[in-house]
Amino acid sequence: MPDLIQPSQVAVHVYINGELLVQDRLGGTNFAGDTTGIYPWRWDTTGLRGEQTVTVVLDPDDLILAGDETVENNTASYTVDILASGERPFRETATSWLSRDGRYATVHVLDQTAASRDLSQLVSLTDEAFEEAIGRLGLTPNRLYDVYFIQRVIGQGGYAGGSIVLTYSDRNYAGGIMRQVLVHEAVHLLDQQLAPRAIPFLREGVAVWAAGGHYQPEDLGQRMAALVQAGRYIPLLELVDNFYPAQHEIGYLQAGGLVHYLVEQYGWEKVQAWYGGMTAEGYTSHSAALDATLQANFGKSLAQIEQEWLQHLSQFPSDPQATNDLLATVRYYDMMRRYQELHDPTAYFLNAWLPSPQEMRQRGLTADVLRHPKAEINLLLEVMLGAADATLLAGDYQQANVILNSIERVLESGTVMDPLAKSYEEIVNKTVTMGFEVQRIEMNGNTATAYITSSHRIYLTPLEFARATNHWVLVN
């Protein structure tokens, strides 16, 4: 959209088969900075079946002239195939929202999912995560929170606003350690009491610091030193003003690393006082706000703090394991997001729709956090990403990169020619043929274990495979 046009100036009409359904305006931007308009649950498809034409018209009266001289590009049409309600799979028709209170939060899950199967453990895990976040921040919660565990991967596997939404799936290709991610998001909720106007760079930095790492426990000083030594450091002026579009893992690590450094130098009490009063209001940019508030609270500019921090990091000895872990983690998540862009686009974090869980629960809606692509290419790449994540967390960086190499070849070519990918594909296809859905595959030379579920069973069942000549054979 041209810079001189404000989103609120742009009218939007949405038609279904020529009938006006939505008459509204654009409403904001996503993490990528793109203008968006979201009109949730405005189309009731009850009684409809077959192909329906959806037409979106921006500026239907062509009132915007400067920067939009061509009226022909204001309209886009799509065809949507609506299936009969009786064709919905069993697990979708049988599910509903379940809730259980813990000490700090009410946990909400969908019945007939992995989260409902493990509900008791998730309530305990949520309490533990909040206790850790409360201890790090030194805050007392002012309300009972809501935590939603969903079957669907959205973005990096979790987000927080007024509540927490986390992916909990047996085939969670977003990876990481659940407790770590849960502490991170719990910090975001508690943080609203402490720093309601903080800039994203600092908000995410405090969450990474308080959780003791991003996706797993990490030595933030050593990991930052590895980042600098690997030549992947992003100058703070560039990163602070362009935080979310920056490489995700690097941006979050640098934000958490800077907070970690400041706490080491000045103590959490002083950092907390600075952070709690942080705001970008009245400044031309987030970096300008950061620079001014650092000077006001610590007597040093952003450039001085950055120079001293980098000097501090230069004193760390080289740690090959920290470097290998960092680079493999960055590569894993770059590959995961490339998969989302190509094969699960509504999950891609920069333009993902983050639905309101409270409204879904109130309306009894489940499909938005239950449905996800299940073509064989999705099953294949998701179990391979899961296998790469498992080897990465186990510290086997060489094998993690072997699997990532195979995934990359599939993503680049669109075909499965790589021998390792073909092995995964054969096992995936065999489980699908037997009527199962594969959730995880563990390869071990000439043997493999596939963990499967079925349409009527949410408990994982292992199937053992062995390689016979050039094919995989079920042996149990």
Concise synopsis of the structure shown:
With 476 residues, the protein is α+β, with helices and mostly antiparallel strands.
Write a structural description.
This protein is α+β, with helices and mostly antiparallel strands and 476 residues long. Among the domains are: 7-86, Immunoglobulin-like (Sandwich); 196-318, no CATH class. 43% of the residues lie in helices and 19% in strands. It contains 16 helices and 15 strands. The chain has helices at residues 90-94, 114-117, 119-137, 178-194, 200-211, 220-229, 236-240, 248-266, 268-276, 286-298, 302-314, 320-343, 357-363, 376-393, 397-413, 419-433, and strands at 11-16, 19-25, 28-29, 35-36, 50-58, 75-82, 97-101, 105-110, 145-150, 158-160, 164-167, 437-444, 447-454, 457-468, 471-474. A hairpin with a 2-residue loop joins strand 1 and strand 2 (19-25).
